[in-house]
Structure formats: structure tokens, C-alpha cells
Amino acid sequence: MDKTELEALYNWAQIKPSTNQVNLASCCVMPPELVEYAQENGIQLLTHNDPQEILTGMRRGWTLHYVVRYTNLMKLRGVIKSKGYLMRALRDVRGKRAF
């Protein structure tokens, strides 16, 4: 997320975000305004290089609603416990939507 998106999420959320992942494909240096905002609000900035398009070529009849990437880190160790993706897609079945 960029600074504007992170700030909007932070102001909206009841449980405040503690980390924000920035895609290295979009920048090679963290934007100074993002770094400053994160420091002011105790948000850790992390980087990743996942492709922008995670799912390509959805089969006919399917509608992708969202894809979420998660990483579970061991607190204070920086060790990845698990990571993966969650997604939701709906399939059209003869004019009706099915899960």
C-alpha cells in the first residue's frame, strides 16, 4: 500500500495495522512519506516481489472477487512460519451464481 491507502486503512480500522508490505516491482526505494507515516504510527514496513497479477487466465464462467496474500511471522524472530494466498471466486452455473 502507498501512504494514502495505508493512512485510509489506519484511520478506518478499529484494530490498527502493524505491518505494511510494499511491492519491490513498484519501487526500489521506500517513499519517504510512507516511511515517515509508518514510523509515526508504529507500522513496520516489509517488502515483497510478488507479481501484480497472481491469478491469470481464469477459466470461463468464473469471476474472481479477491486474492489476499498472507505471511505469518514468528514474533521478534523474523522467521516465516507460513505464507500463502486466500481467494474468493464465484462460478456462473446456467445463469446462477454458485460458490
Automatic annotation (TrEMBL):
<dbReference type="GO" id="GO:0017109">
    <property type="term" value="C:glutamate-cysteine ligase complex"/>
</dbReference>
<keyword id="KW-0317">Glutathione biosynthesis</keyword>
<comment type="pathway">
    <text>Sulfur metabolism; glutathione biosynthesis; glutathione from L-cysteine and L-glutamate: step 1/2.</text>
</comment>
<dbReference type="GO" id="GO:0006750">
    <property type="term" value="P:glutathione biosynthetic process"/>
</dbReference>
<dbReference type="GO" id="GO:0035226">
    <property type="term" value="F:glutamate-cysteine ligase catalytic subunit binding"/>
</dbReference>
<dbReference type="InterPro" id="IPR036812">
    <property type="entry name" value="NAD(P)_OxRdtase_dom_sf"/>
</dbReference>
<dbReference type="InterPro" id="IPR032963">
    <property type="entry name" value="Gclm"/>
</dbReference>
<comment type="similarity">
    <text>Belongs to the aldo/keto reductase family. Glutamate--cysteine ligase light chain subfamily.</text>
</comment>
<dbReference type="GO" id="GO:0030234">
    <property type="term" value="F:enzyme regulator activity"/>
</dbReference>
<comment type="subunit">
    <text>Heterodimer of a catalytic heavy chain and a regulatory light chain.</text>
</comment>
<protein>
    <recommendedName>
        <fullName>GCS light chain</fullName>
    </recommendedName>
</protein>
